[in-house]
Write a sequence for this structure.
């Protein structure tokens, strides 16, 4: 369902109406009662698009949890939906999964409008809900077999166990697994129907750094298998490490969208190249003479602001040419945390509190 | 309908249940413990020995035969009271629960009846009434005694008149002669066990599975709510039949309970499972937190257990509590089970089973209707 605002050609007052793409809806002006028709344009979708969301809105009484957001997810990519707690991530993903009813907006999965044909796409998608726990007294293998029986199309369970590195755990009860393994089983459950699109809602929340890394590797392997992954997370490192495309949501609105490089180029500061323990006192002046914005930091390190990564090689050749020795060089570029801070004025993890 | 999944889900549930010693304990051992404890308490004597005081105002052959018949009933201790003593005073002084007076004229009434049989022009339409004095605070004993007396009087009517009622009795008794207190409790324990396992089972499905994200996951899978509910109901029925079987085996082997298993018992077990699963679904719909839902389940099952006559006969309770019992579904389950399994009273069994079926349809339909997988 899409919301459309129309200006009355007679009196100029605004009227809103809802309809599906392709619909022709009769309306009447609320002021002068002039009758008219509104055509909702049919949208032709690219076959490369796995999910398309247009004008999605969710309102609870006076609270707008998700406010008119739109985005597209290409097939075969990992899409990270990044935002602090309470930003509207889960509400959005649950609307896409048909768990919640949108107030307005349209959602298309694999070219199908889910408000009318969600049952058609159920075989093609798989969902790992937030804080998912499976049946405690079933073994890992029994759990996978259990969920696979629900689908017509079933993947080979032994293949999934091997691929998810769960073969050694297949006879263990779900309740006896560590947090990381439980999440890995959760992802494995998501593969039992060999889906095209996988939704992972905060899959690493509450895990220790090591377990989180293990789950990241599993998620990265899904892309290698050609799956489209919709990942919601509030961990910026997770989005940076995994995502091909990132949408940052804050207070129900998408505030930035693009690949990591695109976001950094658009919103990030210049990268800083840091030269530690330079052998020459003239290094700063030499770099300045070559057109670089260089300065000495409080600890004696030399910092150089660089906008384009091509200039890194230029700096290295200058240092070599002038026989300047150094202990180490590191380059630091803006990250999603800084981008979020720059756009919203608050830190990502603090914004939801 | 994906019946393969329904069967698979049932097996997975049974597997999970067998692997949970705590759950198996509550489903199987708890009712066994209950029946052993109550059996031990109420089976100290082989049978009930009830005192019945009889005051014979007729003092005829026929009245003596009547007293003799009462004397022959096992478990009944007949005490003869002289004609001069005031029945009420005697009962108060001796703390007796019931006293039966045989009216003067019993013998002559029978003679009159016989005479009319030789004169077709005359019609006999007289009746003569026995009087039963009883202690209202001990209705259990009096109701049992009354049933026995009704049986004997009816037997007399049958023998003397061939069926015409001349002794002022218009009730029938279905009570079995070897009635014991433990017989009273066994159906109650079955009803109570089914109630608790179904209510808590439903609560678990609707709160724990919601918290664990299983319901959200199912919503995105090609399975319908009816398939899911059907498979869970089959599991609840499995548990109900298992616990009933265990209770019956223990009851028969240890307490030598004589029970009747008929279609009504099966119907009652099925209807009771649906009934309390429906109540559990309703609780699970409104109380989202599992701990709170468990408490809500306890708040419903615990009082119902006592008020619906599970462990104590209802007629030992005050009148207002007996009125409350009339609106409790477990009361109809207990009474239905007792009438079907122990008393063998077809009419009462039908009456209570009908109520249970109606309750079960109402609560289960409301429960299914209210059960939601999706969020607002």
């Amino acid at each position: 369902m899409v919301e459309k605002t129309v200006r009355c050609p007679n009196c100029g007052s605004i009227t809103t109406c809802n309809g599906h793409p392709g619909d022709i809806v009769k309306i009447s002006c609320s002021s002068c009662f002039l009758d008219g028709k509104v055509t909702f344009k049919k949208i032709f979708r690219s076959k490369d698009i796995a999910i398309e969301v247009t004008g999605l809105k969710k309102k609870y009484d006076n609270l707008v949890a998700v406010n008119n957001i739109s985005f597209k997810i290409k097939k075969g990519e990992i899409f990270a939906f990044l935002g602090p707690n309470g930003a509207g991530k889960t509400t959005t993903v649950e609307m896409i999964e048909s768990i919640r009813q949108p107030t307005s907006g349209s959602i298309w999965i694999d070219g199908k409008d889910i408000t009318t044909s969600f049952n058609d796409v159920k075989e093609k998608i798989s969902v790992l809900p937030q804080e998912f726990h499976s049946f405690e007294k079933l073994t890992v293998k029994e759990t996978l077999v259990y969920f696979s029986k629900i689908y017509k199309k079933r993947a080979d369970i032994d293949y999934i166990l091997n691929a998810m590195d769960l073969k050694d755990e297949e006879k263990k009860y779900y309740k006896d697994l560590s947090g990381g393994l439980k999440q890995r089983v959760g992802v494995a459950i998501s593969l039992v129907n060999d889906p095209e699109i996988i939704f992972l809602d905060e899959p690493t929340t509450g895990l220790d750094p090591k377990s989180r890394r293990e789950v990241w590797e599993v998620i990265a392997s899904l892309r290698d298998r050609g799956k489209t992954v919709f990942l919601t997370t509030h961990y910026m490192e997770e989005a940076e490490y995994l995502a091909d495309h990132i949408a940052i949501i804050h207070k129900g609105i998408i505030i930035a969208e693009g690949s990591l490089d695109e976001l950094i180029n658009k919103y990030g500061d210049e990268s800083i190249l840091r030269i530690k323990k330079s052998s020459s006192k003239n290094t700063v002046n030499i770099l300045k003479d070559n057109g670089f914005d260089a300065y000495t930091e409080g600890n004696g390190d030399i910092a150089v602001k660089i906008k384009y990564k091509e200039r890194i090689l230029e700096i290295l050749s200058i240092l070599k040419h002038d026989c300047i020795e150094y202990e180490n060089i590191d380059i630091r570029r803006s990250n999603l945390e800084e981008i979020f801070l720059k756009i919203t004025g608050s830190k990502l993890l603090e914004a939801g509190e | 309908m994906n019946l393969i999944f329904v069967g698979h889900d049932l097996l997975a549930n049974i597997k999970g249940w067998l692997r949970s010693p705590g759950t198996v304990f509550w489903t199987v051992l708890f009712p066994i413990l209950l029946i052993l404890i109550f059996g031990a308490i109420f089976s100290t004597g082989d049978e009930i020995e009830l005192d019945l005081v009889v005051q014979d105002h007729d003092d005829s052959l026929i009245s003596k035969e009547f007293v003799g018949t009462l004397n022959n009933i096992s478990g009944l201790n007949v005490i003869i009271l002289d004609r001069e003593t005031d029945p009420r005073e005697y009962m108060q002084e001796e703390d007796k629960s019931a006293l039966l007076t045989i009216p003067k004229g019993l013998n002559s009434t029978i003679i009159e009846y016989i005479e009319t049989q030789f004169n077709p022009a005359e019609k006999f339409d007289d009746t003569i009434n026995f009087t039963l004095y009883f202690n209202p605070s001990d209705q259990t004993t009096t109701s049992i005694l009354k049933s026995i007396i009704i049986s004997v009087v009816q037997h007399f009517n049958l023998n003397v008149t061939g069926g015409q009622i001349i002794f002022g009795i218009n009730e029938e008794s279905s009570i079995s002669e070897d009635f014991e207190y433990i017989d009273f409790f066994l159906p109650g324990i079955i009803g109570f066990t089914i109630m608790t396992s179904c209510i808590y089972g439903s609560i678990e499905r609707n709160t724990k599975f919601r918290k664990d994200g299983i319901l959200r996951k199912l919503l995105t899978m090609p399975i319908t709510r009816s398939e899911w509910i059907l498979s869970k109901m089959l599991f609840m029925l499995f548990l109900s039949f298992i616990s009933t079987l265990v209770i019956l085996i223990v009851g028969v082997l240890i307490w030598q309970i004589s029970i009747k298993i008929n279609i009504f018992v099966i119907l009652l077990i099925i209807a009771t499972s649906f009934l309390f699963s429906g109540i559990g679904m309703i609780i699970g719909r409104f109380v989202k937190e599992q701990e709170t839902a468990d408490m809500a389940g306890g708040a419903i099952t615990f009082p119902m257990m006592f008020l619906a006559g599970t462990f104590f006969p209802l007629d030992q309770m005050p009148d207002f509590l007996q009125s409350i019992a009339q609106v409790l579904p477990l009361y109809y389950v207990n009474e239905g089970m007792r009438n079907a399994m122990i008393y063998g009273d077809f009419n009462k069994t039908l009456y209570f089973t009908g109520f249970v079926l109606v309750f079960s349809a109402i609560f289960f339909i409301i429960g299914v209707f209210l059960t939601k997988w999706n969020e607002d």
Notes: Chain B has a mean pLDDT of 79. The beta strands of chain B are 50-56, 76-81, 98-102, 131-134.
